Amino acid sequence: MQLSHLISRLKLQATGLNTPNHDPNLKPAAVLVPIVENQQNILEVWLTQRPDTLRLHPSQISFPGGKLEVADNSLYACATRETYEEIGIKSQVWQAVSQLSKHQTLSGYEITPYVSYARYTADNKNMQLTLNPIEVTEVIKLPLNFLLTQAKLTAQQYQINQQPRLIWHFYYKDKLIWGATAAILAELKQRLI
């Protein structure tokens, strides 16, 4: 898939970048769904692996992002701020494309995902990864083509707190990607195929 096709497919189905409505019983949070065109013109979705020392979601694979802070003027600003804090890529590098559906987590957050893209060049200092070791141990560069053609995304229903919940998951190489991250990727895949 080419970058221009991805942008046109998602923009046609965009829901807006500053949707203020959220469930007041949940804490607002946002993630960036970063799609990067690498030097070989291959589109990659960048994911982060969290350290096993974290209290919440240790070792999980996720998107860069986090909870809304007082200084954030929007959820999108929250997503790009957190991306910079976690992997060192500044907000001005990202070109916003679309907002995906909100996801409620078992830990009490309502996550708003924002798809954004950037073109990677080795000489672009703004695209040099600088991982925050407290929050990220690795950046996983998931080829978008793998997601669209090979990933076996599966949803299983579980009873959690006497409520049925669909939990998505799939493997990329030896990495288990599950939960909200896999659900967001399943929606991205659905919108693109």
Report on the architecture of this protein.
The protein has 193 residues and is α+β, with helices and mostly antiparallel strands. It has a single domain, classed as Nucleoside Triphosphate Pyrophosphohydrolase. It is 22% helix and 35% strand. The chain has four helices and eleven strands. The strands form two sheets. Strands 1, 2, 3, 4, 5, 6, 7 and 8 form an eight-stranded mixed beta sheet that branches. A three-stranded antiparallel beta sheet has the order 9-10-11. A hairpin with a 2-residue loop joins strand 10 and strand 11 (175-178). The model is unreliable at 12-16 (pLDDT under 50).
Structural class: alpha+beta
CATH class membership: Alpha Beta
Give the C-alpha Rg.
Answer: 16 Å
Percentage of β-strand residues: 35-45%
Number of strands: 11
Largest sheet: 8 strands, mixed
Find the CATH topology.
Nucleoside Triphosphate Pyrophosphohydrolase
CATH architecture: Alpha-Beta Complex
Straight-line N-to-C gap: 10 Å
Write the CATH homologous superfamily: Nucleoside Triphosphate Pyrophosphohydrolase
What is the number of independent domains? 1
Uncertain stretches of 5 or more adjacent residues: 12-16
| Contiguous helical run count | 4
Q: What is the chain-wise order of helices and strands?
A: HEEEEHEEEEHEEEH
Tell me roughly what share of residues is in helical segments. Answer: 10-25%
Average pLDDT, rounded to a whole number, is 88
Assembly state (oligomeric): single chain
Task: Report the principal-axis shape.
Answer: globular
